[in-house]
Amino acid sequence: MTPAQYEHLTELFHAALEIAPDDRGAFLDQVSAGDAALRAELESLLVAHQQRAAYTERPLEDIAAGLFLAQHDGGAASVPLTCSQYSYRPL
């Protein structure tokens, strides 16, 4: 992919984010103009963006509660958690 193609793809991706999810199909049809590879790449980016948003919008309290339950249900208590070079072990 050339820098110009990457820039064009980025512009289209950001434009698609501004459109309601139900209306994106028509937008993708219009901007891809029969270019199946371009449409597939845009769809892939939109799906990845949605999955990331679903993960990062999860309330911190839910994440903490899940970790607490995992440590105190007896099943996952012995599994250390690692983040970067740090390792967290249940007490």
Largest sheet: 2 strands, antiparallel
Any low-confidence stretches, pLDDT <50, length ≥5?
none
User: Radius of gyration over alpha carbons?
Assistant: 20 Å
Largest sheet, order of strands side by side?
1-2
Mean pLDDT, as a whole number? 79
Q: Element order, helices and strands?
A: HHHHEE
Structural class: mainly alpha
β-strand number: 2
N/C terminus separation: 50 Å
Globally, the shape reads elongated
Summed up, the helix count is 4
Helix content: 55-70%
Approximately how much beta-strand content do the residues carry? 5-15%
Pick out its properties:
elongated; 4 helices; mainly alpha; 91 residues; 64% helix
Sequence-ordered SSE layout with sheet pairings:
Blueprint: H1 3-17, H2 24-32, H3 36-56, H4 60-72, E1 81-83, E2 86-88
Antiparallel strand pairs: 1-2
Helix pairs in contact: 1-3, 2-3
Q: Summed up, what is this model?
A:
The chain is mainly alpha-helical. Helix content is 64%, strand content 7%.
Structural account:
With 91 residues, this protein is mainly alpha-helical. The protein contains 4 helices and 2 strands; from the N terminus they run ααααββ. Strands 1-2 form a two-stranded antiparallel sheet. β1 and β2 form a beta hairpin. The longest helix has 21 residues, at 36-56. It is elongated and about 60 Å long. The N and C termini lie far apart (50 Å).
